[in-house]
Amino acid sequence: MTDLTEPAETVDDRAPRCAECDRCGELRENISSGSPSWDSIPTLATVADLMNFPNLTAETPDQHIGDLDGVLAKYHFEDRVPCSLKGRHPHERGVVLKALCGMTLCMGPNCGKKSIVGFADIWRQVSRVEQFERDQGYLARWPAFFEKFTAPIRIQLDLREAWRTALFKDARPLYDRLSRADGSTTIDVNGQVETLSGLVLFNKHVRAEDLKSELTNFVREYAANPPNDGTSAARLARLAGKANRLAQDAEGWLQETESFANARNIALCLHAAKLNDAKVEMNNAGSLIVQVGNGTRIELKAATHVAPVTDLDR
């Protein structure tokens, strides 16, 4: 998650002031700057784009005045770059700004707040725009993400139904115990205590059907009224926040339930259900095959898992 902390206005009064900025500031008096069209302000893709930016000043020791109307570009690189201000301190995220004097400067939040009068307002708005763009990007990826998500959820629900209807039809007390367990439980195997894990799959209080319905309803609502260029930042943030919560809930449920489908866990369940004649093997596709002595055969398909939520950077 990107740090959106807004810098306080702490201009270094010891720095010499730019006389031309002061003169322009006096001429403007109480006239406020215009509001830029953020669609026309580029996000620089590479460090080279910044270093080759037209008329970029390498370094100035002076304190300057800036406003929103002077924002020329923004950037967020993996590599650190030097700013144009006193000390040329390295940073990863910043803006290219045309000061009132006409000088083109690049800066990150720390140097900007020390050497640019008016920088706090500039950075606050830049942060809001960047969050809006991140939310747009996150939501744009959501429908495709949902399609990949529902398949493993269905696989896990089929697995639960298979256990309920086939394996535990003669071991209902065990199934009831699993459905009440909080993630794991212990069973006795020949006098030795063993732990069964991944039991969120059976937990009656964690209803995957409801989670799947929430996911489906969200996608339907999103498709019926998708965000556009006129969508407010507040609505976009609410949508992205809800999508992120649903993704985390689904991801957490899948991670816990998929931990149940391993040979040891299944063998313990079969033992507890007194189905000791059952066999468990894995086929070439990575699916677990449970063969019960009465002829019941269940294939526990290997779920093709989606990317973790952390890959969906919001």
Q: What's this model, at a glance?
A:
This protein has helices at residues 19-28, 47-51, 109-115, 119-167, 172-180, 208-224, 233-258, 263-272; strands at residues 43-44, 64-65, 71-82, 90-98, 104-107, 116-117, 184-189, 192-197, 279-282, 288-291, 297-300. It is an alpha+beta fold and 314 residues long.
The SSE order reads HEHEEEEHEHHEEHHHEEE
Low-confidence stretches: 1-9, 302-314
Task: Return the structural class.
Answer: alpha+beta
Mean pLDDT: 77
Domain unit count: 2
The number of helical elements comes to 8
Strands of the widest sheet, in order across it, are 1-3-4-5
Portion in strands = 15-25%
Write the topology of this structure.
Blueprint lengths: L18 H10 L14 E2 L2 H5 L12 E2 L5 E12 L7 E9 L5 E4 L1 H7 E2 L1 H49 L4 H9 L3 E6 L2 E6 L10 H17 L8 H26 L4 H10 L6 E4 L5 E4 L5 E4 L14
Parallel strand pairs: 1-3, 2-6
Antiparallel strand pairs: 3-4, 4-5, 7-8, 9-10, 10-11
